Amino acid sequence: MPLEIAFHGMLMPGLLPVFVGCLVLMVLLDLAFGRLGLYRRVWHASLFRLALFVCLFGAAGLLLVR
Amino acid sequence: MAAVSDAAVQAPRRPWLGGFLAGEGRAWIFVGKTMLAMYLGAWLAMWLQLEQPATTMITVSIVMHPHSGMVLAKSFYRALGTLAGSLVGLALMGLFPQQRELFLPSLSLWVALCAGGAMRYRNFMAYGFVLAGYTAAIVALPAVGDPYGVFDSAVMRVSEVLLGIAVSALVSEVVLPERLRPILRQSARAHFTGFLAFVRGSTAGSIPREAMQDAQLASVRAAVRLEDLRASVIFEDPEVRLRSRRMRLLNQRYMAAATSFQSLHHLINRMQRGGRAAVAAALIALYRPLAAALTPPAGQAGDGLDALVPQLDACARALPGRAAELRAGLAGDGERMEFDTGAALLARFVGELADFVATEQALRTGAAVRGGVERVHFSRSTDMANAGLAVLRTFLTMLALSAFWLASGWAFGASAMLLATIFSGLMAASPNPVGSVLHTLAGYALGMLGAAVTVFGLLPGSDGFPMLVAGTLPLLLIGPYLSTRDGLPGVGAGYTLGFVYILALKNPMVYDPEHVFNDAIAQLGGLALSGAAFMLLPGLAGTGWQRRRQLRQLRRLVWLAGTAPLAGLLWRFESRSRDLLLQAVTHTRPGSAESRTLLAWSLAVQESGRALIELRQDLAAGGLAPAARAAGEAAVQAVAALYRWPDAARWRAADRAVDTAIALAPPRPRNHLYQLRSALRDDESPLVAALRAAPPVESADAA
């Protein structure tokens, strides 16, 4: 995966699409976890969501941009 | 002795002290979170080598709010507004790179349209519109002298703004979040139990019109408030987002039940006044078992909600049998027909009440909603005249500023325009814009003073980020603290904005007193000009003209109920009539003649409009003789036209059309027609009063 991608002549960081993809994945996970009631079982729901997002984005970024 | 007097002094002080400390604690948590978000944003902006960390700080100061759901809602719409605004800024710059005379008016027009959009959509969507205008201005204005730099400037501004949004959302979500969800749940429950208690208390018989109007106001306020809260909480909590559609359904079912309830009571009241006491007594007797059905069985945990639904269903099943019994006791066809109308209305009300309670129960337990979840929307009603006025006002303000800028070659014209952009949009929706601008102006001036002291007194000689924080923190935290005081609206926000603008944090920092004071004067000028525009072209809010317009719009809803396509009409009618009433009533004094008139009209509109919709559903269901169908449709048209253009001739036409239709109609539509006729002839209704006041002789004859 390139570090920078050209979009209509503009250079954008290669991580941007990864970030957007992770956001979409996060929304889907949110839906699923909300339906299962998982967020009621964790101590700090928003911290958990943030940590989950950081894990997702970190893993995807490290795997794709090497 | 001393110990006794000590205790006497100490005892009453504690509750006061406790309350004070709790309030202060919340305020300081908010101040701490704002400061954390601001400095974190500034540090990240410097680390990422963005041009103006100040923009990030300004974004944080605009977006931060004590409740995290509000911050997320604001952030979401602000991000949308920022993206749209930067694209427009780029497009305008690309169209008119060399012609300021064309560029500035078109920018003014864009900003003005955004201000109008902010008036059209209240809630946080309004905010997105304000920011779309503002971002177009911050992207394009600094690049006026250097059109080639506009793309880089746009990228920088958007990055800074989005960084600020992300940081404030993160901090308010993760650090000691204060949630809106408990407030939503609490007010929804209070509202639910309040309504049930009101219904229970009213089964004894009639309710005076005044009490009815007060109840109407309270219930309308609750319905709109719940919708507003729901729109913010869905950003904060994924579980609430899942239930959002169900909460909408609950609110709509509540509104439907409340309208049926009022219609029923109006009907009973009219019977009592019109010498039909026997029918009214029979209806009240039919109605009484509802009180028992609404009382949860003793000794049950919680509020006994589980038992209520079967009780209500049983009550609904028992209704026809009881009605037949009571009907047999009445003499004469006329009385029986009146009784049938009331009994049908009561059956509808009990059914809706049972649906409402079942939805509430489903919401609490997470079970499936019976009857299937229908897609419903809370439809708002807005006055386009007000939005148009905001567009005109903002356009003229911006045009005046740009003309002055072009004619004088003022170096700081861009700053003045920027400030005018923000405040003409933000303040347009406030109930007293001139007062708000004055408050903000005072706060802004104070903030700039504080920033000047900081920049020239404390910062020179400081080195590194910790010293920057240490130098700016003491005077900066006054702003967020002031914004937690309810007595000083706008001052805190003005202070923070003014401080951050003048601080103009850069990396490396620039110290230029001349620039600072020129900028300060330009910004105050822009802010003052937007205030002057509000004085010259005051908003319509609270004027008699707007009230008359709103009243006309309210009456037009009956026309809507009589003519619009039936699909989803019921929900649209119920929510729009409430939204409109609340907008109109906010600007009247409680208990004044104007507010009474509005409430009376809204009750009449809801009763007639709802009856029209039910009647149209009966007609659409088919199975009617063509003559009866035609007569029914003629009656619908006549009543709708009467509410749209009320006068004595139309009243007589509507009365005659309804009479003809009653003679031809089978029982089901006849009940609704009968209810319509009874509402038309209601001597306490504002409709009849208005007709009587206008042409005195004719309508008195007709009635």
Automatic annotation (TrEMBL), chain A:
Pfam families: DUF1656 (PF07869). Keywords: Cell membrane, Membrane, Transmembrane, Transmembrane helix. InterPro entries: DUF1656. The keyword Transmembrane helix applies. The chain crosses the membrane at residues 12-34, 46-65. This is Uncharacterized protein DUF1656. It comes from Fulvimonas soli.
From TrEMBL, chain B:
The chain crosses the membrane at residues 27-48, 76-96, 102-119, 126-144, 156-176, 384-404, 410-429, 441-459, 465-482, 487-504, 524-545, 557-573. It comes from the Bacteria. InterPro entries: PHBA_efflux_AaeB/fusaric-R (IPR006726). GO terms for molecular function: transmembrane transporter activity. The keyword Plastid does not apply. It is found in: Cell membrane. Keywords: Cell membrane, Membrane, Transmembrane, Transmembrane helix, Transport. This is Putative membrane protein YccC. It comes from Fulvimonas soli.
